[in-house]
Amino acid sequence: MTQPGYDAMADLYAETFPDPYQFPIERHAAAAFAEEAAGRPGRTLDVGCGTGHVAADLAARGLDVLGIDPSAGMLTHARRLHPEFPFVDGDASLASVPDGPIAAILARFSLIHAEPAEVDASIRLWADRVVPGTPVLVAFQASDDAGPPLAFDHAVAPAWRWHPDEFARALADAGFDEAWRIVYRDTNYRFPMAQVLAHRR
Ligand SMILES: C[S@@+](CC[C@H](N)C(=O)[O-])C[C@H]1O[C@@H](n2cnc3c(N)ncnc32)[C@H](O)[C@@H]1O
């Protein structure tokens, strides 16, 4: 899989978003996730890690992190900015993630770029790779309308936004039970945003 949109925008993205979090609540969500992942055996995966800035924050919180992204351009920045930990070329299927224990999985604003059926399939593959209790945290542009995900005109690549209930349903169908969610809004951004934390059943 490739991500030509992100390859083309990678330099601008790295320059525009030097900080991993746009809103304080996002930092708190990452901290809560990291607290759960800490002490669990294995690597914490940052799926769709982009320039690696969130992976770096998780590593600073003591996690053994592996970043995964399908965009060569984004990975170039990730490896330049954070040479101290590994990144692999790959996607949400985790096909390129070496065998071994997985402590936790984070996917921030990356699954939005996978077609909804691919999201369902990927989360099922996650379920096959992790042990009961494993936390996953997913962040995404949300919809207030119940029902299936809605395609939207993301500036970089095809994207879908999900009603939080629908994402929780996808997680539950794959074997992950929701523990908590946040929905947050900003007057300068057109969509609500959501994060769902769930555990492998
Ligand atoms: C909006 S950026 C978010 C980057 C990072 N997670 C963050 O929070 O800053 C979306 C990232 O998802 C990646 N991506 C796109 N399709 C993907 C897929 N099917 N699986 C995993 N990552 C994907 C893109 O290459 C891009 O780096």
TrEMBL record:
InterPro entries: Methyltransf_25 (IPR041698), SAM-dependent_MTases_sf (IPR029063). Keywords: Methyltransferase, Transferase. One of its GO terms (molecular function) is methyltransferase activity. GO terms for biological process: methylation. Residues 45-133 form the Methyltransferase domain. Pfam families: Methyltransf_25. This is Class I SAM-dependent methyltransferase. It comes from Tsukamurella sputi. The lineage of its organism: Bacteria, Bacillati, Actinomycetota, Actinomycetes, Mycobacteriales.
